[in-house]
Design a protein that fits this description.
single chain, 8-stranded mixed β-sheet, Aminopeptidase, 336 residues, alpha/beta, 15% strand
């Protein structure tokens, strides 16, 4: 019995030490789990079947389908009572046609936010691109359900989870900006406009960017292990951000993180190919969440019926938990 007591005491001491080394996760642990559970496969599916429908005509930048997409996103924020950081009722960051290459028409990013309770001037940005590649010459619609309808609807659900927490008096210490960018498919234009031309919240006050681009499917490599996600960039600028990401995952989700595409020598160069890069080039720590490419990538067959909604739910909850932790730490994430 004595030996058992000693063993238990030692075990508890080790656990306590481990928690101390991890600088403890946020308070209200039970609450954060409750809010994460408001992110559901059913709601993600309902939103994506609309957002990636033929009605949106492939959401090509500047075209009527993309205009319908930004209205869909805006209306979601209005209906849930989530405000814009631009002005009351104004969720669109206008980008003139002259900013784009070629014959692209004017377009817009969509912004919404939840103001921080203690450090409102500091912001965690969660981003995804709202556009896709439109309609082919023979009339095929590229619905882009995974690319990046999955990231778009994930942000909408994550935003709802933060709003639910805020309504219960558990709003994040730092502000959360939900940033839906246009023009990704034609060269990361929307995110570049935000970072280089008109950062609504100063980049010096931007703590981190969590970018979501394709998180609703499984690639060939992981057909027998679907509980995974590729992480890119988490340790490029901040080892602390990388460690937070790992700790949060182990505590709440326990998903396999695949860092294959994080390699500096990765021939795909995915680190440079999505919207997080425009933040990273400005020395802002980033994490890019990605399920890898698949047979329907950039094809009309990327449709909402092929999304694995339970997996999309899990990945969205992971990103919510990670954003929650970053937003609620006593100190902002350190840049190496």
């Amino acid at each position: 019995m004595k030996n058992l007591v000693i063993l238990l005491y030692t075990t508890l001491s080790i656990v306590g030490c481990s928690n101390s080394q991890n600088k403890k996760l946020s308070k209200n642990i039970g609450d954060v789990t409750k809010y994460a559970k408001t992110i559901t496969a059913d709601e993600l599916k309902e939103a994506l079947y609309t957002y990636a429908s033929d009605e949106f005509k492939g959401r090509k930048t500047g075209e009527p389908g993309q205009k319908k997409a930004v209205e869909f996103i805006k209306n979601h924020y209005v209906s849930t009572g989530i405000q814009s950081p631009i002005a009351k009722g104004d969720y669109f960051q206008e980008i003139p046609a002259s900013y784009f290459s070629g014959s692209i028409k004017d377009s817009e990013n969509v912004l919404a936010y939840i103001k921080g309770t203690e450090k409102p001037d500091e912001v965690v940005i969660i981003s995804a691109h709202l556009d896709h590649i439109g309609i082919s010459e023979n009339g095929d619609i590229y619905n882009g359900a995974d690319d990046d309808g999955s990231g778009t609807v994930a942000i909408l659900e994550i935003a709802e989870a933060f709003k639910a927490a805020s309504d219960k008096g558990h709003g994040p210490k730092r502000s959360i900006l939900f940033l839906h960018v246009t023009g990704e498919e034609i060269g990361l234009f929307g995110s570049r406009y935000y970072t280089d031309e008109d950062p609504i919240i100063p980049l010096t006050n931007t703590v981190a960017n969590l970018n979501i681009d394709m998180i609703g499917r499984v690639d060939r490599k992981h057909e027998n292990n679907r509980n995974y996600v590729y992480l890119i960039g988490s340790d490029k600028l901040s080892k602390e951000l990388h460690n937070i990401s790992e700790t949060v995952n182990k505590k709440y989700i326990n998903m396999t993180f695949d860092y294959t595409y994080n390699d500096d020598d990765d021939p795909n160069r995915f680190y440079y190919r999505s919207d997080h890069y425009n933040f990273a080039k400005n020395n802002i720590p980033v994490i890019f969440y990605f399920n890898g490419t698949h047979a329907d990538y950039h094809k009309p067959s990327d449709t909402p019926d092929k999304i694995q909604y339970d997996l999309l739910e899990t990945r969205a909850r992971l990103i919510f938990h990670t954003a929650w932790e970053i937003a609620n730490r006593s100190e902002r994430v350190k840049v190496d």
